[in-house]
Amino acid sequence: MRGRELTILALGGESLLVAISLCWWFYRGPSYWPAVGGWQEDVALGFAAAFGLMLVNYLLLRCGPDVIPLRAIRTLYRTTLRPLFSGVCLSDVIIISIAAGVGEELFFRGVLQPEIGLVPASIVFGLLHMGGRGTFLFGCWVAVMGLALGILANVSEGLVAPVVAHSAYDAAAIAYLRWGAA
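The structure corresponding to this sequence follows.
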């Protein structure tokens, strides 16, 4: 799949999550709409959280021991994710990352988490990032990331910080997959 095709696919899927979220909030009424919070503080908090998540991910995958869970995720990165993102350009990375941050955070932290709770929403987030054989451990890792983003939403009392964290993390991860060391 070429970079532009992947970008269009991501925009379509994430737009669907935004539409579902907006419909849900409209259905539930204004008292259910998510808080925005303090923009400057939440943006800074989001970037700090993204840096922490990136650092943990990098240390685990590049410096962690050669154990089955990490080996499985490393294999997935090498055999599936790196080839998937091999054709993206910088604008694709930016668009895909922002779309994922906005769409997924509005839905998972803005709609699902208030309805079913932090842990169940994080588990669903991880499950929906699995794509078949060899992705179970990756889904578990994504669920942990979802838990961190959910806590960030609770701490910041809004969605700006998790949207920024998710977008920045995805941008760094995709850029690393595309241009980073093999």
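The two ends are 20 Å apart (CA to CA).
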